[in-house]
């Protein structure tokens, strides 16, 4: 197995000194904490928007749309359980970056890091906080568009709030994830209850002839799959924070099964509720299904309740996304792929404070009005690298058959998810080869950056003393040091 040497080897927990006084991120996440992070990351804005794409992909057939929701849940569960095996084998945080680094080497890992940390994560963070601000302000500007300046101001406040919580305490960030997860589920329960009430009133006309697929166009299927898979995405948060999970070989896969099962049931019931008042054609034409439904179900006077829950849902997703992103930066810096300062932990707070503050680059993306276009360009590269990551599981089974595996995923699940990723990548490339090729090219820009800044032989040597001085200065500013005990 390929391994990478940590330039600053942490002290062992059992070296005879007082391990409790050593600076390190604590292993603080139990089963329910893992579940809260998964629910917080997965249930963002997808269920409030994706029904449009899923129903469109089902050709307007209600029955087929429910099948697609179940299939997409199974596909994402397969992916999550597959990468859970890698997380408990390698025992390190960092997710895809760590897995690729161990299996395919530093160059491939840096390209993946470049795509995630400089494009996907910050642009996704910007979209998330803009969504929060839009849903919070819309009730106050129902007769006009909310001012762009107001949207950006609220977005900045939301981003800084989540950063402050994560910087202050890892346990507080997990508690926030729990509170917001309960809140967002409560919001969906309100939708479900109103939907059940509508059913008792006889609003069942949209469920009649549910499997009317006489004129179904199979070319619409990728649209439905992509929308459904996106609604269930976000589970990678749990495979990126392995070092902070208690008993990871049990809690990581178990939390995935429990969370995905709960979310699938809630998603299906939410779609039933939507269809009690909204016709399939109206859902397909809608830009915000939950907003349209809330006006009909609760009236204009009370529809703001659902809008508030959508905003809180997006805030929870933002919190868990930042939690994950910071651990990737932390793991990358520990392996020498990021500036050293990002591998350090606050002495007083025991949080990866510098790595958390790195997410402030999301503010740069708030300047751009069409961030989603950039994400669409890079989405193909993201799928390609996820395919490369999943391929590690069968590769390791072949090359390292005797490697200890505390948790072992059935290979059929890994191959099912791998086949799905290949299908999505192929269809995306076929549908728009220019944009997808451009996105892949942006990802490959990471190659010269790797050789200039990271490669031990070719990196620019004159930057070393400058980097060291900046690191020491920032250490004093943030009052942080490298981890003093081994956490993997």
UniProtKB/TrEMBL annotation:
Q: Which UniProt keywords apply?
A: Amino-acid transport, Cell membrane, Cell projection, Disulfide bond, Membrane, Phosphoprotein, Transmembrane, Transmembrane helix, Transport
- Gene Ontology terms, cellular component aspect? microvillus membrane
The record lists the catalysed reaction(s) as: L-cystine(out) + L-glutamate(in) = L-cystine(in) + L-glutamate(out); N-acetyl-L-cysteine(out) + L-glutamate(in) = N-acetyl-L-cysteine(in) + L-glutamate(out); an L-alpha-amino acid(in) + L-kynurenine(out) = an L-alpha-amino acid(out) + L-kynurenine(in)
The molecular function terms of the Gene Ontology recorded here are: L-amino acid transmembrane transporter activity
Where exactly are the transmembrane stretches of this chain?
Answer: 29-54, 66-89, 110-137, 149-169, 176-199, 219-242, 254-275, 295-315, 351-367, 379-398, 410-431, 437-454
The name of this protein is Cystine/glutamate transporter
Coiled coil regions, renumbered to chain = none
Gene Ontology BP term (one): regulation of programmed cell death
Q: List the InterPro entries hit by this protein, alphabetically.
A: AA/rel_permease1, AminoAcid_Transporter
Q: Where in the cell is it found?
A: Cell projection, Microvillus membrane
Q: Which Pfam families match?
A: AA_permease_2
Q: Which family does it belong to?
A: Belongs to the amino acid-polyamine-organocation (APC) superfamily. L-type amino acid transporter (LAT) (TC 2.A.3.8) family.
